[in-house]
Amino acid sequence: MDIINTIGRRKSSIARIYLREGKGNIVINKRKFEDYFTVPEMKDRVKQPLRVLNVQDMYDIKVNLSGGGFKGQAEATSLAIARALIKLNPDDKPALKEKGLLTRDPRKVERKKPGQPKARKKFQFSKR
């Protein structure tokens, strides 16, 4: 089996992953998976595509993450892993799609506008 390369994005995070057969090791930015994501919810989110297909210990994954915060990075990684698993076996697509793991979440932070304190909030209006 060759190395499968995919990309996942969420907010301003970008995850590039390299998936190959192995023992279930996940390395993120040259650090162990457990050291990079310390919050249990983030660990679960990253491993969710593997858990859905029950292939946690079959593939080694190398991840290059950039941008954003931990939540965005975890969701970008999850999307990239799901896409890689589909490249590997297209028959798995319905199972992953049913769990919503193939949808790229397009929501981003709206930019701040001039003359306002935030993107939509206005300064308090004073009549006098």
Helix amount, in percent?
A: 25-40%
CATH fold call: Ribosomal Protein S5, domain 2
Q: How big a fraction of the residues is strand?
A: 15-25%
What's the number of structural domains? 1
Biggest sheet details: 5 strands, mixed
Please give the alpha-carbon distance between the first and last residues: 73 Å
Number of E-state strands: 5
CATH class term? Alpha Beta
Structure description:
- This protein is α+β, with helices and mostly antiparallel strands.
- The protein has four helices and five strands, in the order E-E-E-E-H-H-E-H-H.
- It has helices at 33-36, 40-53, 70-88, 93-98, and strands at 4-10, 13-21, 26-28, 31-32, 59-66.
- The protein has a five-stranded mixed beta sheet with strand order 1-2-5-3-4.
- Helix 2 (40-53) packs parallel to helix 3.
- The radius of gyration is 18 Å and the shape is elongated.
- The mean pLDDT is 94.
Describe the structure concisely for a colleague.
By secondary structure, the chain is α+β, with helices and mostly antiparallel strands.
Set out the fold topology.
Blueprint: E1 4-10, E2 13-21, E3 26-28, E4 31-32, H1 33-36, H2 40-53, E5 59-66, H3 70-88, H4 93-98
Parallel strand pairs: 3-5
Antiparallel strand pairs: 1-2, 2-5, 3-4
Main traits of this protein?
5 strands, Ribosomal Protein S5, domain 2, 128 residues, 4 helices, five-stranded mixed β-sheet
